Amino acid sequence: xxxxxxxxxxxxxxxxxxxxxxxxxxxxxxxxxxxxxxxxxxxxxxxxxxxxxxxxxxxxxxxxxxxxxxxxxxxxxxxxxxxxxxx
Length: 87
Fold this sequence. Notes:
The protein is mainly alpha-helical. The chain contains 3 helices and no strands. The model has no long low-confidence stretch (mean pLDDT 83).
């Protein structure tokens, strides 16, 4: 049994290796770079979303000032449509 295993291993060792194995390192490294880029993009989107939620929440806590009408600009007639409508 052990002799068979040694024979098989010697046979495999004597065969030429597959050419794809030589390019495997570059493919693995490209995959790692793509994974890292995706992770960075997801993290950036999560941070932007959390920041937007935080700004919205903080904005809802700040009381708004009521709107007040200002005096009409100089030269505007009292009979202007916006004055007649009460705006």
